[in-house]
Design a protein that fits this description.
- The protein is mainly alpha-helical and about 240 residues long.
- It has two domains: about 15-160, Orthogonal Bundle (Ribonuclease iii, N-terminal Endonuclease Domain, Chain A); about 170-235, 2-Layer Sandwich (Double Stranded RNA Binding Domain).
- It has eleven helices and three strands; from the N terminus they run ααααααααααβββα.
- The protein has helices at about 15-20, 25-35, 35-40, 50-70, 80-90, 90-100, 110-115, 120-140, 140-160, 170-180, 220-235, and strands spanning about 185-195, 200-205, 210-215.
- It has a three-stranded antiparallel β-sheet with strand order 1-2-3, with helices on one face.
- The chain is globular.
Length: about 240
């Protein structure tokens, strides 16, 4: 069996859909979900990358995972439900789902991004998974997304709970802010640097225009986690 290299042609989107048991009435949506912005940069005839679908998929996942946690974890209090949902939609977990489904095989990328290992990078895989969910929602609706996510969520539920991954810094800082009636923390990207395949982001966490913490990381989500941890330490909750 041939081994795919980082610069080899991606798996056709129709084959990926067949392998995952998905049926798209509009195949162009799936193709777009698998298109990284670096591919568009090198192929001007390609009209759109997957970033808008990523935005939509992120919102859809928040709802679907929140509803799943509510129904499958009846013993959990509200705060624990929030932390559980946060753990299940964090980029690292979505990247794990993407690897399990081998979504990277179908990702269309620029040559430089692919040769630098982009098809196996957490930030890329997590974002592509969100874009796939966004495409599935537009094509087949909420029920299709729920059916797609059900086995994935069920397979990691116990591990997420047992490892206490639900206690991530952003959720803990939000709980503190709510308990103090300060409002919802906002994470603002204040700087970014480096090439596309090795970007670094700087994020501040703010409440009502006051900055509580700042963090750096290879993705906005990681930088936000660091910023939240910095904020927790500043208020005496390490």
């Amino acid at each position: 069996m041939a081994v795919q290299t980082e610069t080899s042609l991606p798996e056709p989107s129709a084959e990926l859909a067949r392998r995952l048991g998905l049926s798209f009435r509009n195949p162009a949506l799936l193709s777009r979900a698998l298109t990284h912005r670096s591919y568009v940069n090198e192929n001007p005839n390609t009209m759109e990358d997957n970033e808008r679908l990523e935005f939509l998929g992120d919102a859809v996942l928040d709802f679907v995972v929140g509803a799943w946690v509510y129904h499958h974890c009846p013993e959990m209090a509200e705060g624990d439900l929030t932390r559980m949902r946060s753990a299940l939609v964090r980029n690292e977990q979505l990247a794990e789902f993407a690897r399990r489904l081998q979504i990277g095989r179908g990702l269309r990328m620029g040559r430089g991004e692919a040769s630098s290992g982009g098809r196996d990078r957490d930030t890329v895989l997590g974002s592509t998974f969100e874009a796939l969910v966004g495409a599935l929602f537009l094509d087949a609706g909420l029920g299709a997304v729920e059916g797609f996510m059900e086995p994935l969520l069920g397979s990691v539920r116990e591990r997420v709970v047992m490892r206490a991954e639900i206690y991530d810094p952003t959720s803990r800082f939000q709980e503190w802010a709510q308990s103090e009636k300060l409002g919802t923390p906002k994470y603002v990207t204040v700087a970014s640097s480096g090439p596309d395949h090795a970007k670094m982001f700087e994020v501040e966490v703010r409440i009502n225009d006051r900055t509580y913490g700042r963090g750096n990381g290879p993705s906005k989500q990681v930088a936000a986690q660091v910023a939240a941890q910095t904020a927790l330490e500043a208020i005496g909750l390490p």
